[in-house]
Each structure stands twice: as C-alpha cells, then as structure tokens.
Amino acid sequence: MTLRKGEKMTISIQEHMAIDVCPGPIKPIKQISDYFPRFPRGLPAAVGRSSALRPAVSQPSVSPAEGPREDDEDVDQLFGAYGTTPAEQPAKSPAPEEVVDPEGYESDDCTTLGTLDFSLLYDQENNALHCTINKAKLPKLDYRKGLKPMDHNGLADPYVKLHLLPGASKANKLRTKTLHNTLNPTWNETLTYYGITDEDMIRKTLRISVCDEDKFRHNEFIGETRIPLKKLKPNQTKNFNICLEKQLPIDKTEDKSLEERGRILISLKYSSQKQGLLVGIIRCAHLAAMDANGYSDPYVKTYLKPDEDKKSKHKTAVKKKTLNPEFNEEFCYEIKHGDLAKKTLEVTVWDYDIGKSNDFIGGVVLGINAKGERLKHWFDCLKNKDKKIERWHTLTNELPGAVLSD
C-alpha cells in the first residue's frame, strides 16, 4: 500500500488481529487434559524428550480444533514405557485374582487363555470328589471377553476335561458336555470321582483342562490349571476363579498309580432273616484299560471259599467300554453266621472279550487271612448283624488262590 505525504497509516481491525496473533506463540491451554485424557501434566525429569516433544509438554502449540497430532503416538509410547502416576491413571478395580502390572496390561496368560470358575468338594463319608464346572471367560481388560477363539469364525466349541495325577488318563478321565460357538461358556455341570480316599487327597493333584472340540481334526488345547487335593478340607466346598495356563508336562516316571488296577466298592451284610451273607457289588473306579481302544468291558465275579461243590460263583452283567462301571448288584450266600469266620470272600474283576479268553483286571480278598481295611471290613460285618457296611478296596495284580481264567 502506497502512502502520500502527510497521511497516517490506518490499519483495519482484521489486519490488527492478524498482526497481533500470528507472529507470536500460542498461549498454553490451561485444561489440556480435557482434550487429551491420557496426556500427563508432566513427565519424570529422567525421561529424555526430543525437541519436538518439549513444546508439547511445556507450551502446547495445538489448538483443540486441530485434533491429535502424529507426535501423540510417540508420547503414548513414552507413557507405556515409563508409566504414569496413580493420580493420572483412570480408576480401575481389577477383579479378584487378576494380576495387572503397572503398565495397565496383564503380564500372564489370562488375556489369551481365559479364566475358569469352578468348585471342589471332598465328601469324606462317601469317598467322593465332586468338581462343579461353572463357567469360563476372559478378564475384563481384554476386548474379547471370552475364551481364546480357536475356530475360523472367531468362536470355540469348548469342553472341560478332568484328570487325576498321578494316574492313567483313560482310567480317571471325566469331561463335561461341549458347548458350541461361544467364548463365554456356562456349564454348571458336576463331575464326580468315586473311590477317593484320604491318602489320595494327600498325594494326588486334579488337572482341569479346557479344550476346543473339532469334528474333522484333533481337539485343540486351550488352557489348564492344576489343584493339589491337599488344599481341600473334607466336606467343605472350595470355590476357584483362576487363570488358565499353558499345557504342562506330566512326569510319568513318578506315576506310581499306573501300577494300580483300579478300585471296587463292596457292601457286606449278614441277614438274620435270610440266614446268609449278602454281598453287594456296587461300582468300580479307575480300572486298568485292557482293550486297544483304551477301555475295558468289565464284569465282576465273587467266590466264597473254600467251595468244595464249586457252587458259590456269582457274576455281574458286563458293562461295555468303560473304566468306571456301575453295577449295583447283590448276591446271597446261604451260610450260618458262625461259619463265616472260616470263610474267605474272593472278588475278581475281568474284561470280557469275544472269541478269546477274558482278561484279568484285578481282585481283592476279604476274610480272616486278609490285612488292613480288608480284614476290618470282614470283622465289621461279623460283629454287626443286619447292618450293611460299604468299603472301597484297591484291586491288586495278583490274587492268591484265584483261578486266572474264566
């Protein structure tokens, strides 16, 4: 603009504002946290900052209308590396047993493997271990909120499998039903182990695995947890809600229970009305697998010896493809009560085979010549007429005096 002599330069209000604002620095915003919630009011002095970042902290040069800058990603990385003070972090209340590290991310496998909610109860009187599988989910800090997706549709077909360690997997494996296309399964299903003794509760561990069922290929492992049974108190339910872990190896070199042939629940009662001994074969548990499919087709035989006429043999029905058969059958031996002290009850468990000899699984002898629980069971029966007494007994490989053929 050209000025004549004597004229004063006039400036419009628009030009005045442009001159007053543009050349100078923009003043810092007092409440910058309103626009950048994760942006701190200050970083530790020890943290080195580039020259491009210093103005962003001391004198921000970004107006709210401009939105976030590319430098914000660098600042976020600094926060992830060095953390923020408790006052600057959003208030969170982590769920029980969720371990959250100072950076706000989970340091274990909860995010990828999920958590399992279940409860355990040891019924000491009935020698039973009840495991109630409630539900599974991922921690709230994960955006998926469910089990690790295993299928192409981002979902899974989960089921839960139980296994007592040490012990042969086929003999003591239990599993829930499969729930399809879900990452938040709710089973509310109770699985029960029978024949569990106080000794088992001291030395055994319950392995709980969550798997994904596949129809056209092998089932996939998701995660597991292991609970030493010695943590449980008899007749008291204990609840668990814990993170699943990666698959852990099973040390079979220390698996002494692999030598066990299984257990059998027998009831004895001398009936004054029937003038005889009532022998009940109730069930077996954790039997040894005798067939190629990993199972057996078990049945039970009983003898009251000595048996000169060979008429004392009784046999239960055959239960197909199981290692935990339930029989609930009762046999009566007509005999005087005074003669029982001279008798021995021999119980044997067999695997039924078509076209060849049946396989001997194991047996137990009750009577005057027995020892431990087997002798005590026999004496309790003799001393308590008309009272049914049930006991679990461990099957042995060798049975003195038994005929190992059927």
Strand content: 25-35%
What would you call the structural class? mainly beta
**Overall mean pLDDT score?**
75
Please tally the helical runs, counting DSSP H or I stretches of 4 or more residues. Answer: 6
Q: Whole-number radius of gyration?
A: 37 Å
Number of domain units: 3
Give a quick account of the main beta sheet: strands, pairing sense, barrel closure. Answer: 4 strands, antiparallel
Strand order across the biggest sheet?
5-2-1-8
CATH class call of the largest domain: Mainly Beta
- Percent range of helical residues: 10-25%
What is the CATH T-level topology of the largest domain? Immunoglobulin-like
Q: What's the number of extended β-strand segments?
A: 16
CATH superfamily of the largest domain: C2 domain
Order of helices and strands: HHHHEEEEEHEEEEEEEEEEHE
The gross shape turns out to be elongated
The poorly predicted ranges are 38-109, 138-145, 253-258
Q: Alpha-carbon distance between the termini?
A: 123 Å
Describe this structure in words.
The structure is a single chain. This protein has 406 residues and is mostly beta strands. The chain has helices at 13-21, 54-58, 71-82, 110-113, 198-203, 372-383, and strands at residues 115-123, 128-137, 158-165, 174-175, 186-194, 205-212, 220-228, 238-243, 263-271, 276-285, 298-305, 314-315, 326-334, 344-351, 359-367, 389-394. The protein has a 4-stranded antiparallel beta sheet with strand order 5-2-1-8, with no helix packed on it. β3 and β4 (174-175) form a beta hairpin. It starts with 12 loop residues before the first helix and ends in a 12-residue tail after the last strand. Mean pLDDT is 75; it is low at 38-109, 138-145 and 253-258.
